[in-house]
Write a structure and sequence with these properties.
The protein starts with a helix and ends with a helix. The mean pLDDT is 91. It is globular. The protein has 2 helices and 4 strands, in the order αββββα. It has a 4-stranded mixed β-sheet with strand order 1-2-4-3. Helix content is 26%, strand content 29%. It has one domain (3-58). A hairpin with a 2-residue loop joins strand 1 and strand 2.
Length: 69
């Protein structure tokens, strides 16, 4: 898998989770899967995988981290 493909998938996951407002959180692509950073506790069920790759969740991260600054 290419890095650009992983970035596209991370972007698609962020859109799916509605995290593309730049404030509530973001998704980071790693070689092993995806890291989701969200500012609050995630309501509902967390996705365990996306595109067949594992998703790791980090809740209640600081606002700077959630905005990926």
């Amino acid at each position: 898998m290419s890095d650009s493909y992983m970035r596209e998938q991370a972007e698609a996951l962020a859109q799916h989770l509605r995290l593309n407002d730049g404030k509530s959180g973001y998704v980071e692509a790693t070689p092993d899967g995806f890291q989701v950073y969200v500012r609050r506790k995630w309501p509902g069920k967390q996705l365990a995988t996306w595109d067949g790759l594992p998703v790791e969740w980090h809740e209640n991260v600081g606002s700077h981290k959630a905005a990926n600054r």
